[in-house]
Design a protein that fits this description.
The chain has 3 helices and 8 strands. It is an alpha+beta fold and about 140 residues long. It has a 4-stranded mixed beta sheet, with no helix packed on it. The longest helix has 11 residues, at about 55-65. The protein starts with 18 loop residues before the first strand and ends in a 6-residue tail after the last strand. Bound molecules: zinc ion.
Length: about 140
């Protein structure tokens, strides 16, 4: 290959409507097969019940987007909308707090533009900061 082995993965060559094997992905992107398998382990959706394992081009592109999403700063009253790709103030200023651990959880609201669920991790200790800014409903796990 003329451009050597240090070429950057070219995500643009991935076709959304195509299926790829691990080998295909490695070849198309110029990465190691082990890298692709690690992506699958890390949440890249793959069709594992057939051999060879198949990866949907669309899934691959989405996975890549999620991994490389720009570092965004949300203001205190904002959550990041993955669809609009900008921080949004949740519709009606309303969010739910869903505890994930004893010290933190997710704030969840609706994007006022596209109605997608928007989320943000937040420490439980920081919830009082939102008082007067957002209407927070605290959800509790129902199964305990
Ligand atoms: Zn949105």
């Amino acid at each position: 290959m003329a451009n050597g082995k240090t070429r950057k993965p070219n995500w643009r060559c991935i076709k959304r409507h195509r299926n790829y094997t691990v080998n295909d992905v490695a070849r198309e992107l110029g990465v190691a097969k082990g890298t692709v398998r690690r992506w699958i382990k890390n949440g890249l959706p793959a069709i594992n019940d057939k051999r060879p394992t198949l990866i949907l081009g669309a899934d691959l592109v989405e996975f890549h987007k999620r991994r490389t999403k720009p570092k965004h700063k949300c203001k205190r009253n904002e959550c990041y909308c993955l669809k609009c790709r900008v921080p949004r103030i949740p519709a009606w200023g309303m969010v739910e707090y869903l505890p994930l651990t004893s010290t933190g959880g997710n704030l969840r609201g609706l994007c006022p533009e596209c109605c997608t669920l928007i989320c943000r991790r937040i420490a439980l200790a920081k919830l009082p900061v939102l008082e007067g800014i957002l209407k927070v409903t605290i959800r509790r796990q129902t199964n305990d």
